[in-house]
Amino acid sequence: MTPPTTPLRGGSVTWACTSGFSPVFIFPFTPGEYYGVANLHEFQTLMYRPLYWYGTGGQPTVDYERSLAEPPVWSEDGRTATITVKPYQWSNGESVNADNVMLWMHLLEAEKDSFGGYTPGFFPDNLTGYEKVAEDRVSFTFDRAYSHNWVLMNQFSTITPLPKAWDRTADDRPADATHDPAQASAVYAYLRACNDERKSWDTSPVWSVVNGPWKLSSYTIDGVSGDAVLVPNESYSGTDKPYLDEFRLVPTGSDTEQYEMLRRGPKALDGVQIGFLPFDEVTEPAEDPLAGGPNPLGEHYDLVPQLTYKIHYFPINFNNPTVSGKIFKQLYFRQALQSCLDSRGAIRDVYKGYGYPTTGPIPALPDSPLLSPAAHGDPYPFDVGAARAFLTENGWDTSTTPGTCVREGTGPGEAGEGIPAGTPLRFSMRYAQGHETLTAVMRKFAADAAKAGIEIVLTEVEASVLVLEDTTCTPGPDSPCLWEFSDWNGGWGYGPGFYPTGEALYSTGSSVNFGSYSDPKADELIARTVVSDDLADLYAYQDYIAQQVPVIWMPNFPFRLLEVAENLKGVTPINPFGLINPEDWHYVGEVL
Question: Solute-binding protein family domain: which residues (predicted)?
Answer without folding.
Answer: 66-464
